[in-house]
Amino acid sequence: MQRSTRERIVAEALRLFAERGYAATSVAEIEAAAGLSPGAGGLYRHFRSKEEVLASAVREHITRTADQIAKTFEQSAAIREQPLADRLRLAAAAGLRKMREEADLIRVLFRDLDKFPGLVTEMREGIANPLYDLFAKWLSGQPEMAGIDEDWDAVALVLGGSIVNYWLAQDALYEPPNRVDEDRFVGGWTRLAMGLVGTKAEAVQ
């Protein structure tokens, strides 16, 4: 599907922000990358400023991620009869896939977004906290977890945070930490999560 001019501006701006940094990217460079005449003011027909382009990227990410999260949890509900290990693998794989899909925005978030505290708040309240909250509810809602007295918010943060950290380290170091590839990581993550229900590691293939 062909992207609109507005969509091209947001996508190309985000790519350039991720590659060069927000401050080092000019409006003219964004216009050129989006197929507009550089310096002719085409960006301003869609956005009031470069900062508004970044804000649009953040808000589109929040909307897109919320939709994808809902679909992922719906999918996991559809395989409820499958072993818990398979459901956990699905959750871990989905988390890593989402990090890859949003790589440019994540790079900008960790490098440049401290200059825009309002956008940081939107990211925290619009996606980060709700995501961990949903994951905590998903974990505690699995039949095998019923009756387990656990701090699910803390557990979700530990498990979810390990996925974020794995991807960030891989992205920064240009290879998986300690050369542990994604399959091995997901396997280890699943065995760790299975420990919540007292399942022996040998039971996880």
Give me some keywords for this one.
single chain; 205 residues; mainly alpha; 8 helices; disordered C terminus
Task: Please provide a written account of the structure.
This protein is an all-alpha fold. Helices cover 68% and strands 0% of the residues. It has eight helices and no strands. It is elongated and about 65 Å long.
What topology does this entry show?
Layout: H1 5-20, H2 27-33, H3 50-78, H4 84-101, H5 103-112, H6 117-141, H7 152-173, H8 182-194
Helix pairs in contact: 1-2, 1-3, 1-5, 3-4, 3-6, 4-7, 4-8, 6-7
SSE series: HHHHHHHH
Overall spatial form: elongated
What is the straight-line distance between the termini? 40 Å
Q: Tell me how many strands there are.
A: 0
Which percent band covers the strand fraction? under 5%
Global Rg: 20 Å
Helix coverage percent of residues? 55-70%
Report the structural category.
mainly alpha
- Main sheet properties: none
Please, what is the average pLDDT? 87
User: Unreliable stretches, pLDDT < 50, 5 or more residues?
Assistant: 199-205
Discrete helix count: 8
Task: Quickly describe the structure.
This protein is mainly α and 205 residues long.
